[in-house]
Amino acid sequence: MGILNQMPPYNLFGLERQDYSVSRIAAFPIPYDSTVTYRSGARDGPAAIISASRNLELYNHELNFTLPETFVFTMESMAPDLNSPEGMIRRIEKEVGIAVDDGKVPFLIGGEHTISLGAIRAIASRSDVFSILHLDAHSDSRDEIFGTKNSHASIMARAREIVQSSYSVGIRSIDSESMALYGKDMLFIDEIHRAGIQKSAETILSRLGKRVYVTVDLDVLDPSEMPSVGTPEPDGLHYAELRHILSSVFSKREIVGFDITELCPIPGIVAPDFLAAKLAYSMACDLYKSSEPRKAAGKTKHSGKKKL
Ligand SMILES: [Mn+2]
């Protein structure tokens, strides 16, 4: 029994009712940042997003509806595997796989970008083909860096080995080798500036299959709006532009999973944390609007309180 005047519960969006069995989105907070190459601290990202999200209105003014309380279920934070990035990716793949088997759409809250690979593997091993929409300032296409093939700088190199199509958007930092190999599968920030956001969103849709995994590295945004990232790059997308792209993709494609990564909170500067929380909320609302909640598929394996 709780007290009468209590703060919203500690989960994504501070939802009063949490019921895994009827939820559509399984949100996985993953406080992991072992392979970052510059400023660390993305391990604090999930807590900052959840804290900020508890202070958001559940009424969505943009879409004129209120997100149902049970649509999103927040899992317990996943413990990091400090042994190796590969071990961490395997752990994420296993946990996310259980949720996918239960008919959930996984939503990873990072944490560094490496975590996406666990979800991409889990979904790929269970389902038909899907495309990856990769929103990022960096191409993340290094085959290897600092002795590992599984770092936040290599996630798209690994993802391309798994899925048949991917499209990277907002790119403005890339090495010449990756440019030669994969440049054709990228929409660079200067191209977006020239074409405008509406036309760019159409181009993005034309490059994606029917089913899409969406991965957001927050450094795709301009550092003036999103300074709280490990490796900021000038001249990024504005929040409204990112929202335009995401709402167009969520409304016109089947979303098999999505993530928000690389929030690296700066003490005392909370606006970026709220931006990330609002982005998470908007994506959850987009998913609700675009698909009738499916019936929970058969038996439920995750208790929702599972400890590793
Ligand atoms: Mn990046």
What would you note in describing this structure?
It is a single chain. Helix 2 crosses helix 3, helix 7 packs parallel to helix 8 and helix 8 runs parallel beside helix 9. The chain is built from 9 helices and 10 strands. Strand 9, helix 8 and strand 10 form a beta-alpha-beta unit. The strands form 2 sheets. The chain has an 8-stranded parallel beta sheet with strand order 4-1-5-10-9-6-7-8, sandwiched between helices. Strands 2-3 form a two-stranded antiparallel ribbon. The protein is globular and about 60 Å long. The chain has a single domain, classed as Ureohydrolase domain (Arginase, Chain A), CATH 3.40.800.10. It is an alpha/beta fold and 308 residues long. The site of manganese (II) ion has 6 residues, from loops.
What's the CATH C level? Alpha Beta
Determine the N-to-C terminus distance.
28 Å
Kindly state the percentage of residues in helix. 25-40%
SSE succession: EHEEEHEHEHEHEHHEHEH
Strand order of the largest sheet: 4-1-5-10-9-6-7-8
